[in-house]
Design brief:
Chain lengths: 588, 88
Amino acid sequence: MKSFKEIYKSAENKIAGIAAAPGIVIGEVYLFTKEKLEISKADIKDVDEAKRNFQEALEKSKKELKKIFAIAKERMGNTRAGIFEAQLMILDDPVLIDNIIKRIEEEKKQPEYIVDDEISKYQQMMFLSHESYMKERANDIEDIKNRIVRNLRKKRWQSRIKGEVIIVSDSLTPADALLLSRNNIKSFVTDHGGLTSHAAIISRSLNIPAVVGTHNATLKLRDRQMVIVDGFYGYVLFDPTEEQIAFFDEKHKHLVQLQREFDELADKPAVTKDGKEIELLANVDVTGEIDIVKTSGAKGIGLYRSEQLLDEMDTIPNEEEQALIYTRLASRIYPDSITIRAFDIGGDKFKLFDYDEPNPFLGLRGIRILLENPELFKEQVRAVLRSSVNKNVKLMLPMISTIDEINRTKEIIENCKKELTSEQIPFDKDIEVGIMVEVPAAAVMAKEFADATDFLSIGTNDLIQYLMAVDRGNDLVSDLYQEFSPVVLRTIKKIVDDAKLVGKPVSLCGEMAADTLAMPLLIGLGLESLSISPRTIPYAKRIIMSFSHADAKAMAEKCTMCCYEYEIEKTIQEFFEENQIIRTRNII
Amino acid sequence: MIERVVKIRNKAGLHTRPAATIVKIAAKYKCEFFISRNGMNINGKSIIGVMTLAAEEGAELTLTFDGVDEEEAAKEITDLFERGFDEE
């Protein structure tokens, strides 16, 4: 049988990209293009359904806005929150709503088109005014228009994607990817994005094979075209030949067999050849992922990204809703534990503020936004505490850069504990509170921060981004996003050593740990706990079982002395060869 | 039908908050209520409509009320304008 290399060498029908989530899929293309994302002026057949969709979109928008209005009142005071009240009133505006419904009935067009057209008329009038504040007002109206259109579009999409398809798209927002994943999606292919793009992360969490960064898949492929997606090597083959189909069918069978072997690994501990046990925890992005966690053999959830709830629910869940979700997760994972990371969101999620942040990654995000919105934060802290009765819940704080942030958070937690006590609601009084180390400031202060908290968790995605001052989503500079840069290695080593110095546990939860190539290196640097996507756990386990801790330590030491990334990569490759570790894609 | 001419008395003019207040009051009444300025005629029960009116301090608007409770409506809304929307 031919090898992958030979198959691809001779293939003229291939599109190359980055392998973002493993797996092999053969199926039909569904182009999810900008054009389709734009407002559809298409005719409709069922007027009643369109009217119903419109009413539902209005209700959904109202629900979202009420939440934002409540937060805005706290943050900006009643007067300035007035704009949200006006937006809410627009959703109930009798003249506007009647006009839209009448036009849906008469013109029989997609409601999103009519909403857009109708509201734009008012904006036109505002733009005609000479008063400068009228232009701002037109922008406020834009928000509410987009909100309704977005909710309508979702309705349209939910009813459109039927059957098992391969989504081919320019790029995917986390919300798109989540929404799409609720349908029967076999695979994702995108033009843009890298290994750490949201589409890639979500694909991995949901075990959907994906190829990203193909640059032009949307141009080369058309709707309903037959393709093979190879999430191991990062290729898409369109109109595959019989030989190619036979080859990948065979590989697919092999893969199923391999998966069975991996399943047998689930109950075994991850121990190196010389008997060092490594704790493998699972990252959970999407609530539905918990089933995969249970079968993966993870020793608990090392990172629950609670902000995903906002995408899943399309609104900020209140204390009750959160308490229910966290409690359910905690009891499913019991007796293992779950680390809930407080909402790691940026200011762009709220649109509460008077100006767009010119530099959101250096702006109000993570703990900063939580401390700015104490009511929002308190609701979450109370919900986490309420879910901790069985003593298997930990709380983790994102984007910590000063000790003051830790102190202020502790104060909020203490207040919540007092409230719950007086309300006679039970919780774990000794709940552990730790921080993410993902800002260089936190790495520098690792010892002091570890001393002030219960545990540290290194978030490599942001840490690398901030250390190298590079946007990993920006193709122009993304080659500077180097996981194996000596800068990254030395920083991780410092954090691990500092935590050990003060006797606090340290874990690592970034995408770096998902790269099986990094596994021996991270363990060699002294990490004894890694949190990775549950799908990767058996793969990681297999690698950990094939080398000794002492050897990995020696290799890591050698790597920290290097100046160039390629030297480090070479050292690791040699380590894999010496220990005869075969990477997963090479065994299928 | 009742017609009233009112003047904007507050510094900030007819901005979003007073627009919302006017619409909220108008919604309580059964009568039709229109606001016109410079040839534009706006339904006073539509917030998005009222928001399209640019009316700075000193601007004159014509209000018309038509319906069973037009007198009460005219009084309450004209008063609101006279008080400068209770702002400075």
